[in-house]
Write a structure and sequence with these properties.
This protein is of the alpha/beta class. It is built from 12 helices and 14 strands. The strands form 4 sheets. A 7-stranded mixed beta sheet has the order 1-9-8-5-4-2-3, sandwiched between helices. A 3-stranded antiparallel beta sheet has the order 7-6-12, with no helix packed on it. The longest helix is centred in the last third of the chain and has 18 residues, at 247-264.
């Protein structure tokens, strides 16, 4: 039985290598490596793809979240609601912006923020919702936007895993006040290093973000704001420009692999749910099983590598001890204890997925 890797970035990027080399030579010969033509061109193209008016390229997904929060200048200590089962970066961004993260429970079917549970977590200090489109499944944005409007809250989406996801044809990146993306190499739209972006339909916010990412400066050596050095560099923008036109094809490939899992895996495994009108992009194909660790070892013994997204919820991370009551989030604990990510990459072939299904169904 052949080894099935969870991910292989060299194989994933192999179809784009010639175009990458061409782009590298163009950037090298241009002599302009920071905030130049490549970044501007990619920002415009990615905004169009996301059905948004503006895109601001930044250094990575975490910085996108931090800058989005800082752009509003919320009072220190204001509360931002985030999912209790998110990746730690969402929580770190709130803390690094000088704000207080409030953990709200997920819907156990989608693993995204549960709109029905949300109102009880909103207080007079709440200023924003930060929904996370986890694993590439869009959150219930119509319901979340309705709640935000009712309570006068901003909506800053964490779409680090959801490039190209949509609801009734409307792309993630065009719903909230701002949407934050990561271009980490494993993402459906991945760079060859770190990168991130923020999309928005607000021209004033976009201009403020461009200032914040560049030392708070609009004119060289003159600083209007207390800013960051957080810029998407020319080379990564050039690489992303190669892959952006192929993003729908990348997503379609992963969706086809996911469809095989959904059809072939037996009912012992809790599989992702499909919702009418929702287009999931399956950045991660995750199942749940009460004997997750034994299942993972069983697969590894048979040459199938998997991942866990994520072994620990944010409220059980050592760095966040004292910020949260670790016993107050049983749903998130259940997810993190039972979740397992299966191979589902642009570099995988359908035959490999069938092999994974066969082995899993024998567990």
């Amino acid at each position: 039985m052949r080894l099935i890797e969870y991910e292989n970035l060299a194989k994933l990027n192999a179809p784009f290598e010639d175009a990458f080399r061409t782009q590298f030579e163009a950037v090298l010969q241009s002599g302009w490596y920071i905030l130049g033509h490549q970044v501007q061109q990619f920002e415009q193209a990615f905004a169009r793809y996301c059905q948004a008016e503006h895109c601001v390229g930044v250094a990575n997904g975490l910085e996108a979240l931090v800058l989005a929060l800082k752009a509003y200048e919320f009072p220190a200590g204001s509360e931002v609601i985030v999912p209790s089962n998110t990746y730690v970066a969402t929580v770190l961004a709130v803390l690094q912006a000088g704000l207080h993260p409030v953990l709200a429970p997920p819907d156990m079917a989608t693993y995204n923020l549960d709109p029905q549970a949300l109102p009880q977590y909103i207080s007079p200090r709440t200023v924003a919702l930060m929904p996370v489109h986890l694993y590439g499944k869009p959150c219930d944005m119509p319901a979340l936007l309705s709640i935000a409007q009712a309570y006068g809250l901003k909506v800053i989406e964490d779409a680090a895993q959801a490039h190209g996801a949509s609801i009734s044809g409307q792309k993630v990146g065009s719903f909230g006040d701002m949407t934050c993306f990561s271009f980490y190499p494993t993402k459906n739209l991945g760079a060859l290093g770190d990168g991130g972006a923020i999309t928005t339909n607000d021209a004033a916010l976009a201009e403020r973000l461009r200032t914040l990412r560049n030392y708070g400066s609009q004119q060289k050596y003159y600083n209007q704001l207390l800013g960051h050095n957080s810029r998407l560099d020319e080379l990564q923008a050039a690489f992303l420009a190669v892959k952006l036109p192929e993003l729908d094809r990348i997503n379609a490939h992963k969706q086809a692999l996911a469809a095989r899992y959904l059809e072939g895996l037996k009912a012992d495994f809790i599989k992702p749910v499909l919702q009418e009108g929702y287009t999931d992009v399956f950045h991660i194909f995750a199942v749940r099983h009460p004997e997750r660790d034994r299942l993972r070892q069983y697969l590894l013994d048979r040459g199938i590598k998997t991942e866990i997204h994520y072994p620990l919820p944010p409220f059980r991370q050592e760095a966040l001890q004292g910020y949260f009551d670790p016993e107050a989030h049983p749903l998130a604990d259940t997810i993190h204890r039972t979740i397992l990510s299966l191979p589902c990459s642009f570099a995988h072939h359908p035959e490999e997925i069938e092999q994974v299904i066969e082995v899993m169904n024998a567990f």
